[in-house]
Amino acid sequence: MCAKPLIVNGRVLARYFVLWLGLAALVGILSGSASAIFLVSLDWATHFRETHLWLISLLPLAGFGIGYVYHHYGANSYKGNNLLLDELYQSQSPIPLRMTPLVLFGTIITHLFGGSAGREGTAVQMGASLADQMTKWFSLDSENRKLILICGVAGGFAAVFATPLAGAIFSLEWMLNRKFQWKSIFPAFWTALVADWTCEVVWGVGHMQYAIPEVPMYSLQNLAWVVPAGIAFGLSARLFAETGHRVADLFKHVGYPPLRPVLGGILIAAFVYFSGSTTYIGLGIPRIVEAFETPLPWYDWLVKTGLTGLTIGSGFKGGEVTPLFFTGATLGNALSVWIPLPLALLAGMGFVGVFSGATNTPIACTVMGLELFGYESGIFLGLACFVSFLFSGKGSIYSSQKIEFKYLRRF
């Protein structure tokens, strides 16, 4: 009599692995392929803009086009990543397939004409949108639908940054608020691995490489310097998140939504014109690379925070994570004047630390740091991520993210 439950459980477990071995692989192929197309298109848009700077003057017109399409044809796609969280917490309606082409072309247009945005949000939304179509194709119940959404997020994140372990953990930590369930672990990791392989090996899309060439010894004195740096990263993350939310609230006073990115585009184009610099628009990857190599102006992180908040808050499309990388790396670079740690290490700590505080995902960000920079700097990176997480307040760049517990939640 004791053996029968074991046989039943064994069969259930076998069905579970067979089901998700196939479904997660399919999501990984779809999200990895979509991310590959997106990354290639984004590289083209960035290069074309930099060789045709007059396009920036058309940013307000591009903003109107994005706003008009989303307002009249986007349905609930305008909610972006918050829609994914809403559907995970309380399933209401399928994520529309139109989200994939809308956010893909919306982000490319944003970058082509000079907006300051990232790419993570686009990849995650495409991955989840494509994955959720399987809910209809395979008649998945509500529990399995949550798993398929987690797979979509894991695949999109892993493919766009070439960090499969961080992609899987990010999907679990971000969507489940660190309440990991055993059923979600295998699908998330398997999807992330397949998506990363599809993007990098099948499609041959490469990714930027970063390095921290010098890592000091793990002494109490060196580790103690991570604390004030982590606090600065946490406060910067809080500023980044609140800037985006405040700008979005301010632009809601414009009654006709398509006009919001028009006004945002005018302000961004005016900034580029009067500053004479394109350093802070687009992804800003060249500046991120510089942050690991040479001292930069102390205000870089503040300018990027403001321009990204203006871009996303006014209605342009894209993600916030690469701008968070920019903000963190340049802030770490600026802190090297006061904190006696290697410049590249501080830039790397800021790279993942500000991201950790703004998304409340310290575990995923620590793992991302290990995947990007190597395991030698792991303790410094992990400590920076957790201190930033604790000091970033109870908010998030995602307004729908539920944070049920945080040590300094009243801060």
Automatic annotation (TrEMBL):
<feature type="transmembrane region" description="Helical">
    <location>
        <begin position="52"/>
        <end position="70"/>
    </location>
</feature>
<dbReference type="InterPro" id="IPR001807">
    <property type="entry name" value="ClC"/>
</dbReference>
<dbReference type="InterPro" id="IPR014743">
    <property type="entry name" value="Cl-channel_core"/>
</dbReference>
<dbReference type="GO" id="GO:0015108">
    <property type="term" value="F:chloride transmembrane transporter activity"/>
</dbReference>
<dbReference type="InterPro" id="IPR050368">
    <property type="entry name" value="ClC-type_chloride_channel"/>
</dbReference>
<feature type="transmembrane region" description="Helical">
    <location>
        <begin position="262"/>
        <end position="281"/>
    </location>
</feature>
<keyword id="KW-1133">Transmembrane helix</keyword>
<dbReference type="Pfam" id="PF00654">
    <property type="entry name" value="Voltage_CLC"/>
</dbReference>
<feature type="transmembrane region" description="Helical">
    <location>
        <begin position="184"/>
        <end position="203"/>
    </location>
</feature>
<feature type="transmembrane region" description="Helical">
    <location>
        <begin position="331"/>
        <end position="352"/>
    </location>
</feature>
<feature type="transmembrane region" description="Helical">
    <location>
        <begin position="372"/>
        <end position="392"/>
    </location>
</feature>
<feature type="transmembrane region" description="Helical">
    <location>
        <begin position="147"/>
        <end position="172"/>
    </location>
</feature>
<protein>
    <submittedName>
        <fullName>Chloride channel protein</fullName>
    </submittedName>
</protein>
<keyword id="KW-0472">Membrane</keyword>
<keyword id="KW-0812">Transmembrane</keyword>
<feature type="transmembrane region" description="Helical">
    <location>
        <begin position="223"/>
        <end position="241"/>
    </location>
</feature>
<feature type="transmembrane region" description="Helical">
    <location>
        <begin position="17"/>
        <end position="40"/>
    </location>
</feature>
<dbReference type="GO" id="GO:0016020">
    <property type="term" value="C:membrane"/>
</dbReference>
